[in-house]
């Protein structure tokens, strides 16, 4: 859960003078595209719809440019440890087969970073895999059946006669349940009246606005540079949320916008911002627009899309997120960029500590994933930011699970916001096929085995990685260099990576909202997608909610052959010893790295002592104690939901308290916070659908038992870095 709560502590950075020189060439003004003055009046738009959208509408360039200078430490990563073990195994095998000290022609000699010489056969690169998986299983994967209730296995039938059993889905049972989490559906008269008074009357606004003119971007009265930006991104027709939000936002109204995941909410708020900024006074530079996002990666993505959309304007942008160089951001903020895209913690750091930066001229405040930002974990930071913005600003909130709860919204002092809930409330995309694998209580220990059967090969994304590792993992995944991304909820919101075909939930998430965001990483922008969720007995209520909010044909049940579970369970036991060794080595390497970093920090403190001492100390709006407690709040809030879920299960069991005991080894033995352990989920990209791909089991085993920091590159004969 620490993933989401970025505070000043996460960003501790010793700013060394050398860094300054490299910043000079990164003036945000250099992004200004002078083409603006040179627009070709003859340019035309492509008109064949969605397919024109470019492959990667965002990139990591700005984030990479903002990375702190790399500190070279000599410790090995877990990838290197595993690679070495793999090579050692091969070496032993080859030595055994060939007799000692025979170096055949087809051997590659590599030298590890630590100087030990290793030999391996080019032809032998699959050995490790063969050893632990066995080729014949590659085909057996196809045995898994996706079934509906007509086709369940005997083992699974026992409880399914109960007509209130959500696992019995597919046969036409219509669940009508009271759902306290979908507020609008359960509002009482008083609540409805309150909302009527709080929100603007949309029909009145629409009456005054010719929404028919919003049918295409060209008829929206947008300026030429924006149309050109949209055209370059390959966007021709606005999506439903864009059709509604753009004209209303251009009127300066506050907006509470909700639309399903992957429906183009980012463009829905970026277009009106950029259009309005084109008419800003040019005499003085001011920071006029602030876009807030809950995670660094989402802010990076938003900044990248915004830069592309504004490429033919003179609008300047600055990315202010933790994990990237403070100094560089300070330099950029000094010239007052028009738009700042930020995560809350780093923004507050700048408000307090960057000379001449303030939010006093903010005209538009956008809060992306607003419901998440309104949660307790962000409460203090959000209050601090809103307090610093002028009251007269325009505020726009967006999320796929947007709340219309007035008590939550009231803190943002909105001005008669227009509620735009475009899709059926909390619906999932109809192009999403949702599969569920039932995990009975006695099978809880099999979750990892089942993942293993699903052939996962993964890189990782979670809060325990450095920002550089986080970017590398995402980039490798986006570019198809790795097949899967194993991620915590850090990746659950907003990330838009083309080609993600499947999302696998190792556990059903804590709430339906979390579920919507996770599975929403696939089936985006009109594409098909699939989610597979390992569903425990305690997840019945959530499963019912999913069914309730989905079309019948979106829901399927997937069964896993019990014989396969047994076999793969044995394989896991076989490699247990090796995994434990790797974990031990990794721990030692981490310690080495930490020590080296401390040493380096100490050296810099001595070297630049005068300058560091003469600088005013950085300040924060909370005391250490407050900071810690708001960080904990977020985790507590998350765990609370877990407890609720568990309680529900206990209630289902008629009060009988049953604790599912999980083998320590079978669980996630990683450094992440407990809440995160319970919520690892996995994203699977294009053409690597469940049951189709070849065996990559060792990676899954590696991930399963140790979720920290592995980026496994695809392909054979991965050469070791020197
Ligand atoms: N008008 C359009 N035409 C074609 N593609 C579009 C259009 N608008 C947005 N897209 C594409 O749709 C995809 C999803 O957009 P975006 O990331 O803004 O979704 P979102 O609604 O914010 O999703 P989430 O709720 O998951 O954050 C992106 O790849 C984007 O490039």
Automatic annotation (TrEMBL):
Residues 18-37, 92-128, 143-170, 687-722 are annotated as: Disordered. Residues 246-420 form the Helicase ATP-binding domain. It comes from the Eukaryota. Residues 119-128, 151-166 have a biased composition (Acidic residues). Residues 690-702 have a biased composition (Basic and acidic residues). Residues 23-37 have a biased composition (Polar residues). It holds the Pfam family Helicase_C. Residues 215-243 form the DEAD-box RNA helicase Q domain. Residues 703-722 have a biased composition (Basic residues). Its EC number is 3.6.4.13. GO terms for molecular function: ATP binding; hydrolase activity; RNA binding; RNA helicase activity. PROSITE patterns: DEAD_ATP_HELICASE, HELICASE_ATP_BIND_1, HELICASE_CTER, Q_MOTIF. CDD domains: DEADc_DDX27 (cd17947), SF2_C_DEAD (cd18787). SMART domains: DEXDc, HELICc. It catalyses: ATP + H2O = ADP + phosphate + H(+). InterPro entries: DEAD/DEAH_box_helicase_dom, DEAD_box_RNA_helicase, Helicase_ATP-bd, Helicase_C-like, P-loop_NTPase, RNA-helicase_DEAD-box_CS, RNA_helicase_DEAD_Q_motif. Keywords: ATP-binding, Helicase, Hydrolase, Nucleotide-binding, RNA-binding. Residues 405-573 form the Helicase C-terminal domain. A motif (Q motif) lies at residues 215-243. It is an enzyme of class 3 (hydrolase). Belongs to the DEAD box helicase family. This is RNA helicase.
């Amino acid at each position: 859960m620490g993933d989401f709560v970025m505070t000043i502590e996460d960003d501790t950075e010793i700013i060394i003078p050398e860094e300054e020189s490299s910043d000079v060439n990164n003036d945000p003004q250099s992004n200004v595209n002078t083409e603006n003055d040179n627009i070709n009046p003859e340019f035309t738009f492509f008109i064949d719809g969605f397919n024109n959208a470019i492959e990667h509408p965002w990139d990591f360039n700005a984030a990479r440019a903002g990375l702190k200078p790399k500190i070279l430490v000599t410790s090995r990563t877990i990838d290197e440890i595993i690679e070495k073990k793999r090579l050692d195994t091969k070496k032993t095998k080859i030595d055994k087969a060939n007799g000692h000290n025979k170096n055949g022609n087809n051997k590659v000699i590599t030298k590890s970073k630590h100087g030990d010489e290793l030999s391996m056969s080019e032809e032998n690169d699959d050995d490790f895999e063969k050893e632990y998986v066995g080729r014949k299983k590659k085909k057996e994967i196809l045995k898994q059946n996706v079934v509906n209730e007509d086709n369940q296995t005997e083992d699974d039938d026992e409880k399914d006669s109960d007509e209130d059993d959500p696992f019995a889905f597919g046969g036409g049972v219509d669940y009508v349940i009271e759902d306290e989490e979908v507020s609008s559906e359960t509002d009482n008269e008083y609540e409805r009246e309150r909302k009527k008074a709080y929100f603007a009357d949309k029909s009145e606004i629409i009456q005054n606005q010719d929404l028919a003119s919003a049918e295409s971007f060209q008829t929206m009265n947008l300026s030429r540079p924006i149309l050109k930006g949209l055209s370059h991104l390959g966007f021709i027709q606005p999506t439903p949320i864009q059709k509604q939000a753009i004209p209303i936002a251009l009127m300066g109204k506050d907006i509470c916008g909700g639309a399903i995941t992957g429906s183009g909410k980012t463009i829905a708020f970026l277009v009106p911002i950029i259009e309005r900024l084109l008419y800003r006074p040019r005499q003085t530079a001011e920071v006029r627009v602030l876009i807030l996002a809950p995670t660094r990666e989402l802010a990076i993505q938003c900044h990248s899309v915004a830069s592309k959309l504004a490429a033919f304007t003179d609008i300047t942008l600055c990315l202010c997120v933790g994990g990237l160089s403070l100094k560089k951001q300070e330099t950029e903020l000094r010239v007052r960029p028009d738009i700042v895209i930020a995560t809350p913690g780093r923004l507050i750091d700048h408000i307090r500590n960057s000379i001449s930066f303030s939010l006093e001229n903010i005209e538009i405040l956008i809060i992306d994933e607003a419901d998440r930002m309104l949660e307790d974990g962000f409460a203090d930071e959000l209050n601090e930011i809103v307090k610093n913005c002028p009251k007269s600003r325009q505020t726009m909130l967006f999320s796929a699970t947007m709340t219309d709860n007035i008590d939550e919204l009231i803190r943002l002092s909105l001005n008669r916001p227009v509620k735009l809930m475009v899709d059926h409330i909390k619906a999932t995309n109809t192009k999403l096929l949702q599969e569920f694998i039932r995990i009975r209580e006695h099978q809880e220990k099999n979750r990892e085995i089942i993942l293993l059967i699903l052939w996962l090969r993964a890189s990782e994304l979670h809060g325990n990685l450095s920002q550089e590792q986080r970017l590398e993992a995402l980039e490798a995944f986006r570019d198809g260099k790795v097949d899967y991304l194993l991620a915590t909820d850090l990746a659950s919101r907003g990330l838009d990576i083309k080609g993600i075909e499947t999302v696998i939930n190792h556990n059903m998430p804590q709430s339906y909202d979390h579920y919507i965001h996770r599975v929403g990483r696939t089936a985006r922008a009109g594409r098909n997608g699939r989610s597979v969720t390992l569903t425990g007995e305690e997840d019945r209520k959530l499963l019912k909610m999913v069914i309730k909010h989905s079309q019948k044909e979106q829901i399927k049940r997937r069964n896993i052959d019990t014989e396969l579970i047994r076999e793969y369970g044995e394989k896991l036991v076989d490699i247990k010893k090796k995994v434990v060794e790797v974990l031990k080595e990794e721990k030692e390497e981490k310690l080495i790295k930490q020590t080296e970093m401390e040493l380096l920090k100490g050296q810099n403190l001595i070297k630049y002592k005068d300058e560091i001492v003469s600088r005013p100390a950085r300040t924060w709006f909370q005391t250490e104690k407050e900071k810690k407690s708001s960080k904990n709040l977020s985790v507590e809030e998350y765990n609370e939901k877990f407890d609720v879920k568990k309680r529900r299960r206990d209630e289902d069991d008629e009060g009988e308290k049953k604790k599912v005991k999980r083998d320590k080894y079978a669980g996630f033995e990683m450094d992440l916070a407990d809440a995160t352990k319970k919520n690892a989920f996995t994203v699977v990209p294009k053409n690597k659908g469940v049951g189709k791909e070849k065996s990559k089991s060792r990676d899954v085993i590696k991930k399963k038992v140790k979720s920290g920091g592995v980026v496994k590159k695809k392909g054979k004969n991965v050469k070791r870095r020197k």
